[in-house]
Design goal:
Structural class: alpha/beta
Number of helices: 11
CATH class of the largest domain: Alpha Beta
Helix content: 25-40%
Oligomer: single chain
Distance between the termini: 59 Å
């Protein structure tokens, strides 16, 4: 393990002392690819008689969405969690002796949202230190990450936490790079760019792919991509998660400072202790989660507005809705009647490929 860390340190040092210009871009690209490979080795250790996968830290996924809280000790994560869960919660904290407590589930706008405290994600976790690896595995399954920062020293912490998460292949608030990548059996590297590239040229792309022992592939660059973007696509194990920075302890700063903070993107100032601005935070969480609520309507009855079926925004067809309720439902499915924003007429008869929108009402008609 230590040798890998030494290699990583060596490459990082070399990258730090290499000037960035056109002539060295190629070399830097190579180093970046090497670094990404070593990093991956750290996260997923090579074979060796296993004591099973990382023991102990697995949290059952409950609710419609999962939010991970990341932050240094004593920035008020626990206070925030217990106060959020205390104000809006329906379950007690269950104990997980190994690593963490799951402080519970909040109900917000009819959706059940699971809140997870992710401790020990801090410096060195991506180098396989401590319990870092299991925590990260859970972090990668979250639908949203809240980084809790102390408003008095936010930037130092923010940088460190972001670096850790990046090192694990978690990309915050970004879209997957628009790069097409397809391996082939023969034909060499075929590079097409649909717009001018400031960083990648055929040479660099070739050398990065060669580092991965890929010598035949189609690469299509549809946006001005960086070497890092290309590596992300080749590695293919990146997850893209929205993220909100929660600045805690705003009771310790002046109103003028607060006004400045309000202008920072992805940022919500709160005070966990005094429960200030929780509604704003919840509203923002809801925005970032992009959940879609569907109300069900039994035949001849009023729609049930108390417990919607909640779907993630990426999967909102009628078929997804049926699968969420029960997988046999789709076999008996004849058509559905939908009221709401996704249809032109109310009600409208739709098939299983119809895409639903937030707060639609649906009635399933069986065969």
């Amino acid at each position: 393990m230590s040798s890998t860390l030494a290699k990583i340190a060596e490459i990082e040092a070399e990258m730090a002392r290499t000037q960035k210009n056109k002539a060295t871009a190629h070399h830097l690209g190579l180093l970046k690819a090497r670094l990404a490979k070593l990093r991956r080795e750290l996260i997923t250790p090579k074979g060796g008689g296993g004591g099973g996968p990382g023991e102990g830290f697995d949290v059952a996924k409950t609710g419609d969405a999962r939010i991970g809280f990341v932050g240094f000790p004593s920035v008020g994560k626990s206070t925030l969690l217990s106060n959020l869960a205390g104000v809006y919660s329906e379950v007690a904290a269950y104990e997980f002796t190994t690593l963490t407590t799951v402080p519970g589930v909040i109900r917000y706008k009819g959706a059940k949202i699971q809140l997870l405290d992710l401790p020990g994600i801090i410096e060195g976790a991506k180098d396989g230190k401590g319990r870092g690896r299991q925590v990260i595995a859970v972090a990668r399954t979250c639908n949203l990450i809240l980084i809790v920062l102390d408003v008095l020293k936010p930037l130092v912490h923010k940088k460190i936490i972001e670096n850790e998460l990046e090192g694990f292949g978690i990309r915050l608030n970004s879209k997957p790079p628009n790069i097409g990548f397809k391996k082939k059996d023969k034909g060499g590297i075929n590079l097409t760019a649909t717009c001018p590239q400031s960083e990648l040229d055929a040479e660099t792309v070739k050398s990065i792919l060669a580092e991965y022992k890929i010598h035949n592939a189609d690469v299509t660059l549809r946006s001005d991509a960086t070497a890092d973007d290309l590596i992300d696509v080749v590695e293919g194990n990146r997850v893209y998660i929205p993220c909100i920075y929660v600045l805690n302890k705003i009771d310790q700063i002046s109103i003028e400072e607060l006004d400045i903070i309000y202008k920072v993107p992805h940022c919500v100032p709160i005070s966990a202790h005094h429960r200030w601005n929780f509604d704003d935070l919840l509203e923002k969480i809801w925005d970032y989660l992009k959940l879609v609520r569907i109300y069900t309507k039994p035949k001849g009855q009023l729609p049930d507005y108390t417990s919607p079926v909640v779907l993630p925004y990426s999967r909102t067809t009628v078929e997804d809705f049926c699968m969420k309720i029960h997988k046999n439902l789709i076999k008996e499915f004849k058509y559905a009647l939908v009221w709401g924003l996704s249809v032109k007429h109310n009600p409208q008869k739709v098939g299983k490929d119809h895409t639903l929108e937030d707060e639609d009402v649906i009635q399933i008609v069986k065969k």
